[in-house]
Amino acid sequence: MEYLLTIPGTLDNLNDYIAAERSNRYMGARMKADNGRRVSLAVSRCLRGTRIERPVYMQYTWYEPNRRRDLDNISSFGRKVIQDSLVGAGVLKDDGWKQVTGFSYRFRVDKENPRIEVEIREV
What we know:
This protein is of the alpha+beta class and 123 residues long.
Protein backbone atom coordinates (compact mmCIF):
# COMPACT_ATOMS: atom_id res chain seq x y z
CA MET A 1 0.00 0.00 0.00
CA GLU A 2 1.18 3.54 -0.71
CA TYR A 3 0.27 6.79 1.04
CA LEU A 4 1.00 10.41 0.11
CA LEU A 5 1.61 13.22 2.57
CA THR A 6 1.82 16.76 1.18
CA ILE A 7 3.09 19.54 3.42
CA PRO A 8 2.52 23.03 2.01
CA GLY A 9 5.42 25.50 2.02
CA THR A 10 8.87 24.81 3.45
CA LEU A 11 10.12 23.83 6.88
CA ASP A 12 13.05 25.38 8.71
CA ASN A 13 16.42 23.86 7.90
CA LEU A 14 19.15 22.34 10.04
CA ASN A 15 21.26 25.53 10.13
CA ASP A 16 18.28 27.51 11.43
CA TYR A 17 17.66 24.90 14.10
CA ILE A 18 21.29 24.80 15.24
CA ALA A 19 21.40 28.61 15.43
CA ALA A 20 18.20 28.63 17.49
CA GLU A 21 19.56 25.98 19.87
CA ARG A 22 22.78 27.93 20.37
CA SER A 23 21.08 31.26 20.97
CA ASN A 24 18.61 30.12 23.63
CA ARG A 25 17.81 26.66 24.94
CA TYR A 26 14.08 27.22 24.45
CA MET A 27 14.23 28.60 20.91
CA GLY A 28 15.25 25.29 19.36
CA ALA A 29 12.46 23.44 21.14
CA ARG A 30 9.96 26.09 20.04
CA MET A 31 11.20 25.87 16.42
CA LYS A 32 10.84 22.07 16.41
CA ALA A 33 7.35 22.33 17.94
CA ASP A 34 6.24 25.01 15.43
CA ASN A 35 7.44 22.92 12.49
CA GLY A 36 5.88 19.82 14.05
CA ARG A 37 2.50 21.55 14.29
CA ARG A 38 2.64 22.45 10.59
CA VAL A 39 3.44 18.86 9.68
CA SER A 40 0.78 17.49 12.05
CA LEU A 41 -1.84 19.65 10.38
CA ALA A 42 -0.86 18.21 6.98
CA VAL A 43 -0.91 14.68 8.44
CA SER A 44 -4.44 15.21 9.75
CA ARG A 45 -5.56 16.43 6.31
CA CYS A 46 -3.83 13.78 4.20
CA LEU A 47 -3.70 10.70 6.42
CA ARG A 48 -6.61 11.07 8.82
CA GLY A 49 -7.25 7.77 10.58
CA THR A 50 -4.38 5.97 8.83
CA ARG A 51 -2.45 3.43 10.91
CA ILE A 52 0.43 1.71 9.16
CA GLU A 53 1.42 -1.56 10.81
CA ARG A 54 3.97 -2.83 8.29
CA PRO A 55 7.51 -1.47 7.77
CA VAL A 56 7.72 1.44 5.33
CA TYR A 57 10.09 3.04 2.84
CA MET A 58 9.79 6.82 2.53
CA GLN A 59 10.49 8.88 -0.61
CA TYR A 60 10.79 12.61 0.12
CA THR A 61 10.44 15.19 -2.65
CA TRP A 62 11.32 18.71 -1.54
CA TYR A 63 9.89 21.45 -3.77
CA GLU A 64 11.80 24.61 -2.84
CA PRO A 65 10.97 28.13 -4.06
CA ASN A 66 14.59 28.57 -5.24
CA ARG A 67 18.06 27.00 -4.97
CA ARG A 68 19.34 29.09 -2.06
CA ARG A 69 19.30 26.46 0.69
CA ASP A 70 21.73 23.53 0.85
CA LEU A 71 20.09 20.18 0.16
CA ASP A 72 21.41 18.45 3.28
CA ASN A 73 20.20 21.29 5.51
CA ILE A 74 16.71 21.16 3.97
CA SER A 75 16.29 17.43 4.43
CA SER A 76 18.00 16.72 7.78
CA PHE A 77 15.81 18.74 10.12
CA GLY A 78 12.69 18.32 7.97
CA ARG A 79 12.90 14.53 7.89
CA LYS A 80 13.25 14.40 11.68
CA VAL A 81 10.21 16.62 12.21
CA ILE A 82 8.12 14.74 9.64
CA GLN A 83 8.86 11.28 11.01
CA ASP A 84 8.32 12.42 14.62
CA SER A 85 4.96 13.90 13.59
CA LEU A 86 3.91 10.67 11.86
CA VAL A 87 4.70 8.76 15.06
CA GLY A 88 2.96 11.39 17.21
CA ALA A 89 -0.18 11.12 15.07
CA GLY A 90 -0.17 7.33 15.34
CA VAL A 91 0.34 6.80 11.60
CA LEU A 92 3.61 4.97 12.34
CA LYS A 93 4.27 2.97 15.52
CA ASP A 94 7.84 4.25 15.67
CA ASP A 95 10.50 5.62 13.35
CA GLY A 96 13.19 3.10 14.25
CA TRP A 97 14.89 0.47 12.09
CA LYS A 98 12.01 -2.01 12.34
CA GLN A 99 9.42 0.47 11.08
CA VAL A 100 11.37 2.62 8.58
CA THR A 101 13.52 0.47 6.31
CA GLY A 102 14.96 3.45 4.46
CA PHE A 103 14.32 6.74 2.75
CA SER A 104 15.47 8.71 -0.26
CA TYR A 105 15.31 12.30 -1.42
CA ARG A 106 14.54 14.26 -4.56
CA PHE A 107 14.79 18.01 -4.84
CA ARG A 108 12.90 20.27 -7.25
CA VAL A 109 12.23 23.99 -7.63
CA ASP A 110 8.64 25.24 -7.70
CA LYS A 111 8.52 28.92 -6.76
CA GLU A 112 4.74 29.06 -7.18
CA ASN A 113 3.96 26.07 -4.95
CA PRO A 114 6.78 25.11 -2.55
CA ARG A 115 5.92 21.95 -0.65
CA ILE A 116 7.17 18.62 0.62
CA GLU A 117 5.69 15.40 -0.72
CA VAL A 118 6.32 12.21 1.20
CA GLU A 119 5.45 8.91 -0.42
CA ILE A 120 5.13 6.24 2.25
CA ARG A 121 5.24 2.69 0.86
CA GLU A 122 4.63 -0.43 2.89
CA VAL A 123 7.31 -3.05 2.29
